[in-house]
Amino acid sequence: MLNTGDTEVFRMFGGIYNEFFGKLQEFSIEFISNLEPTVHKTFGNIDFRGNMWENANSDSQVKISIDYLFDYLRVWHDYQDTGIYDLQNEIVDSSVLKRKMGVWRIDVPRDKDNAFDRIQNNWVRIKLKHKAYHNIPEDETAEEPEDTPIADNVKVEIYDTTVYYYT
After folding, report:
1. What are phi and psi of 3, to 5 degrees?
2. Span 123-166, pLDDT tens digits
3. 133 in any annotated domain
4. pLDDT reported for residue 123
5. Domain of 89, in residue numbers
6. Does residue 33 sit within a domain?
7. What's the total number of domains in the chain?
8. CA distances (Å), 58 to each of 5, 9, 53, 54, 120, in order?
9. What predicted TM-score, i.e. pTM, was given to this entire model?
């Protein structure tokens, strides 16, 4: 249990998913792809299987039908970096993030410093991130979009991840 100094006490590993001290937090998964560590590779795609659930702490969990699980992607190593790549940007080609037959597929973006260079190395670090809030205008006449929670009590499950490359 943690005390914030107020009258409230927060219990660790209990309550609403991704809510800490009364505020929704973004979540991410970060891992290193290092299969065949002595082979120099060019990275192409990332596939993963996963679901998002609403009302995760109750007996009435509801699978959410969504167009995406993550908002941002970053792929990097010592010499190259894609930067933080916005998967939900409307300017980005719609083929960047797809779901087919229950598998999400993301094309690995190119290096941010040289748009012609694919990410190449023996290993890469990959981070997929999801925002806690989305900017959604309340009505079409609103000048500033308001931060709206994704959904209440959301849990994301990632089952497996595959990184494709060629040598």
Report:
1. -110, 130
2. 999 999 887 665 544 555 545 445 555 555 677 888 899 999 99
3. yes
4. 96
5. 26-166
6. yes
7. 1
8. 29, 21, 11, 9, 44
9. 0.76
Phi and psi at 161, nearest 5°, equal -135, 135
Q: Map the chain to HEC letters.
A: CEECCCCCEECCCCCCCCEECCEECCEEEEEEECCCCCCCEEEEEEEEEEEEEECCCCCCCEECCCCCCCCEEEEECCCCECCCEECCCCCCCCCCEEEECCEEEEECCCCCCCCCCCCEECCEEEEEEECCEEEECCCCCCCCCEEEECCCCCEEEEEEEEEEEEC
Neighbours of 108 (CB within 10 A): 22
Tokens (6 digits) for 153 = 């009590």
List, as own/partner pairs, every contact residues 22-26 make where C-beta atoms lie below 8 angstroms and the sequence separation is at least 24, other chains included.
24/132, 24/133, 24/149, 24/150, 25/132, 26/129, 26/130, 26/131, 26/132
Inside any domain, residue 1: no
